């Protein structure tokens, strides 16, 4: 897969940090087993020798990702993540008409390795996410997700517990969106197999606030990538 030039992904840069708008299907770090494929860390190191990725986004998730350019920056960001001082906001499109009004989901998550994540009240680690519905469609809802903690798959599994799986997230029973399901009279040409509007789950890290080394807020807004923007545009047009 061809990814854009690293420079073109940059939303913010100073002497200590780079924040990029991570494209979907690009891993944040080397994956276990080291497949040798391109990832954010490798691209960042080509751009800035001491670059370190400060947190991670799932491979399919797009959006704002913080990279430190030096050890001081990395330590500074890591402490903020540890103390839950980084303000993160994600947008997700979920199945169904779901009304969330500052709903706090507080369900512990157990990560037993191999990307296998479950809700486990006895063994799981505390996980909290706040959800607000932003926009209602006939068959879908655009949801704002604010994770307080940072567990693996946290937003995805917490939404699934609310019967609001993210569209396209087959791991948590989220179904893809097809144009034929929202556009009346949509017809495929004979022998054509319909592709989903988005070929991944619809989750995007939209907004991020953290402090630079000078203790000033760094505020980031990450525009939707093309596939997410197209999904919203088509829902606005055919499912409003």
Number of DSSP-assigned strands: 12
Strand content range: 25-35%
Figure out the total of helices. 6
Radius of gyration (Å): 18 Å
Distance between the termini: 33 Å
How many domain modules?
1
Going by CATH, the architecture would be 2-Layer Sandwich
Family: Belongs to the pseudouridine synthase RluA family.
Organism: Pedobacter terrae
Domain Pseudouridine synthase RsuA/RluA-like: 16-160
InterPro entries: PsdUridine_synth_cat_dom_sf, PsdUridine_synth_RluA-like_CS, PsdUridine_synth_RsuA/RluA, RluA_PseudoU_synthase
Describe, in short, the structure shown.
The protein has helices at residues 6-9, 40-47, 71-82, 154-161, 179-182, 226-238, and strands spanning 10-13, 17-22, 52-53, 62-68, 87-95, 103-106, 109-111, 117-119, 128-136, 140-147, 203-211, 217-221. It is an alpha+beta fold and 240 residues long. Pfam families: PseudoU_synth_2.
Give an account of the 3D structure.
There is one protein chain. The chain is of the alpha+beta class. The chain has one domain: Pseudouridine synthase, CATH 3.30.2350. The protein is built from 6 helices and 12 strands. Strands 1, 2, 3, 4, 5, 6, 9, 10, 11 and 12 form a 10-stranded mixed sheet that branches. Strands 7-8 form a two-stranded antiparallel ribbon. The protein is globular, with a radius of gyration of 18 Å. The mean pLDDT is 95.
Write the layout of secondary structure elements.
Blueprint: H1 6-9, E1 10-13, E2 17-22, H2 40-47, E3 52-53, E4 62-68, H3 71-82, E5 87-95, E6 103-106, E7 109-111, E8 117-119, E9 128-136, E10 140-147, H4 154-161, H5 179-182, E11 203-211, E12 217-221, H6 226-238
Parallel strand pairs: 4-11
Antiparallel strand pairs: 1-2, 2-4, 3-4, 5-10, 5-11, 6-9, 7-8, 9-10, 11-12
